[in-house]
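From: lab user (bench 3)
To: helpdesk
Subject: output format question, protein + manganese (II) ion

Hello, I'm new to running complex predictions and I'm not sure whether the block I got back is the full result or only part of it. Here's what I submitted:
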Amino acid sequence: MPYASTAAQLAVTSHFPGKKPLLISGPCSAETEEQLLATCTQLAATGRVDMLRAGIWKPRTKPGMFEGIGKPGLPWLQKARELTGLPTTVEVATPQHVEDALAYDVDVLWIGARTTVNPFSVQALADALRGVKVPVFIKNPVHPDLELWLGAVERLAQAGVADIGLIHRGFASYGNTEYRNAPMWHLPIEMKRRLPELPLICDPSHICGNRTGLAAVAQQSIDLDFDGLMLESHIDPDNAWSDAKQQVTPQRLAELLDSLTWRQ
Ligand code: PEP
Ligand code: MN
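Helpdesk reply: Thanks, we reran it on our side. This is the complete output you should expect:
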């Protein structure tokens, strides 16, 4: 049954997570218990972070790269949650990921850019989330297809997921560009126009692909009235097992957040 993507047709009712700006940080990937706990406790000590992120299952472009520590990383994240008192968020790409993450008290799930592109995967996640009260962020698809992003929101909303948020992580293009994933700001702005009730946060880490551009992209999103930021951090960024070039230490993260001009 075809229908247009409009906010009015969605069953989304609530405004997770409320706080603005919502600041999410943590490593691209959980690597070891020590790395995850050190990163998370240092982030909590900055007093600037509202939620901890960690990639447990990593969708890598090529085989042979680090594809995530998997289920053994979940008790580490659970421990980080207990030690810091901060909620946690994890990327899920399959119904099994949903089941495993929820079994270890993960507070919020997110759907990654490589999953948002696939309606079968999104529908499988929506079916797994039926009747489950957990907030879910949906990253934009890898390529600039707004309808696919809207379609993912609709699939979750139709499955009864009430707390849906959006994450802008930029859009891939071929060849060397200034950005790892071009921000194409008009697209998240249009998404916000179509779904004004959904929180929209920015992920400067995956837009930039390096550390130098993070502050400018974060500032741009604040100026555009985004609702928060997701930024990757690591105790030893240069030696991270994934996305080493774009991660910052918890201390640098705090300095970066301090350097931004926030809306009143
Ligand atoms: C991530 O957040 O580490 C990630 C894999 O992001 P994306 O889905 O935006 O590529
Ligand atoms: Mn990453």
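A quick orientation on your result: The longest strand covers residues 22-26. Let us know if anything else is unclear.
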